[in-house]
Specification:
binds beta-D-fucopyranose; globular
């Protein structure tokens, strides 16, 4: 490894992240109702090998040992999500005490271990009962989400101070409703746009609820912006393709959250789909509720070009609203096991842009890479590519901080190998390996490396 060790200022927070459906398992225990991901993963053909989150990492039963592992790694913070169908199995209405109790124990165990809990309210596991009532397609979801938020913050808010409303609303809207790769698997560009707006509204409505139930809360949302690159020598059409892709990937959230409007020209680009009446008077003010920081999840940049005259569009981006003639251009190798481009420079650029657009301190709430890990003869997991990716991205982030961008922390995705959504257990992102037959955890070389980086900043 040639990259020099990155250095961050005092107080910089090092953590790792997970999400409820990806690790918990125990899907039918203690009153949890099915989520849209239970339905989707149990639908033939939707996930790799028909994999489901039924058992996942069995974290629901192994939580104390997993927290001990975090402590061993020296993690200062743990970002996890709460499963809505555990807390309010009916979607709205009665709160399930047994579901709340699990997160109560988790928070207490973390605090006893000196690890700061950073809680995401929604990381994609919408109760199926609410999907049956229209899910993110209906405006009512904003009230359902605010009600659920009150239930969670009302019980954990005495101990949890870091709150994130939504994880990657781009994925729960565009990827799930326009591209169709995630639950509920619809392919409709207008639905992508409308669900994005309703997610924003839900977020905006939840912010004051969090503040009411948790005085002193740090309130946030996590987006997954991506640096959009056009061809080296772009035509007018290529530049327009970059603009459209950037709007459908980034501006659709940056605009309403931080600029009080959708990006200029975006509603014109989708005029063939909608008259924009899904945006009601007052929505943008509600969506723009002041935040304390912004979470940024970023793994890779995006490359696009205009679809050539008379040609068929390439890749998935053309399914996004307003992007009908945008090609997705092949990423530049070496690629990760996900087929994702590795670009620390683009990572730095999008973090800097996120800080500029939001005017907020930023936390990198997810970053990491998947590789085909195996347990070696010595019983260890040697993952030099993940070590290199981690160090290069931390290095780029440290450069951004040194150049004046207010980045307050970094969360490795992920603490554990886990259920990688449509790709099931085929893709491993953990800094800790999970043997899914035995549930044995093995810290990978990347986990040890990360622990060394943390220890260098905070000698114990
Ligand atoms: C992000 C998700 C996270 C994980 C990583 C690889 O989009 O937030 O749950 O799947 O990608």
């Amino acid at each position: 490894m040639t990259t020099p060790a990155p250095t961050f200022p005092p107080g910089f927070l090092f953590g790792a992240a997970t999400a409820s459906y990806q690790i918990e398992g125990a899907v039918a225990e203690d009153g949890r109702s099915p989520s849209i991901w239970d339905t989707f993963s149990h639908t033939p053909g939707k996930t790799f090998g028909g994999d489901t989150g039924d058992v996942a990492c069995d974290h629901y039963h192994r939580m104390p040992a997993d927290v001990a592992l975090m402590q061993e790694l020296g993690l200062e913070a743990y970002r996890f999500s709460v499963a809505w169908p555990r807390i309010v199995p009916g979607g709205t209405g009665a709160v399930n005490a047994a579901g709340v109790a699990f997160y109560d124990r988790l928070v207490d165990t973390l605090l006893a271990a000196g690890i700061r809990p950073v809680v995401t309210l929604y990381h994609w596991d919408l109760p199926q009962v609410l999907e049956d009532r229209g899910g993110w397609r209906t405006r009512e979801v904003a009230d359902w989400f605010a009600e659920y938020t009150a239930a969670v913050v009302g019980t954990l808010g005495d101990r949890v101070k870091h709150w994130t409303t939504l994880n990657e609303p781009w994925c729960s809207s565009m990827l799930s409703h326009a591209i169709g790769a995630h639950a509920p698997g619809h392919q409709d560009p207008l639905e992508g746009l409308v669900t994005a707006h309703h997610l924003m509204l839900a977020h905006g409505r939840a912010v004051p609820v969090i503040r009411e139930h948790c005085p002193g809360a740090q309130v946030s949302i996590t987006l997954n912006p991506t640096q959009v690159h056009g061809p080296e020598d772009p035509t007018e059409a290529d530049l327009d393709a970059v603009r459209r892709a950037d709007n459908a990937l980034n501006g659709v959230f940056f605009g309403p959250l931080f600029h009080g409007a959708y990006p200029e020209g975006m509603l014109d680009d989708v005029a063939h789909l909608t008259d924009g009446s899904f945006v009601h008077a007052g929505d943008l003010a509600e969506i723009g509720a002041p935040l304390d920081n912004l979470g940024v999840n970023n793994y890779f940049p995006t490359r696009v070009a205009a679809t050539p005259e008379g040609g068929e569009p390439d890749g998935g981006i053309h399914l996004l609203p307003g992007c009908e003639r945008v090609d997705e251009v092949a990423p530049r190798p070496p690629l990760t096991a996900m087929g994702w481009e590795q670009s620390p420079e683009s990572h730095r650029a999008i973090v800097e842009r996120s800080a500029r657009e939001s005017g907020l301190p930023v936390y990198v709430t997810e970053n990491g890479s998947a590789w085909d890990d195996t347990i070696a003869a010595d019983g260890q997991v040697h993952d030099p590519e993940r070590v290199a990716y981690l160090m290069a991205h931390l290095g780029a982030l440290a450069d951004a901080v040194a150049a004046g961008t207010d980045v307050r922390g970094y969360f490795a995705w992920s603490l554990l190998d886990n259920f990688e959504w449509a790709l099931g257990y085929d893709k491993r992102f953990g800094i800790v390996h999970v043997d899914y037959d035995t549930q044995v955890r093995t810290v990978k070389d990347s986990g040890r490396q990360y622990a060394r980086v943390i220890a260098a900043h905070h000698p114990r």
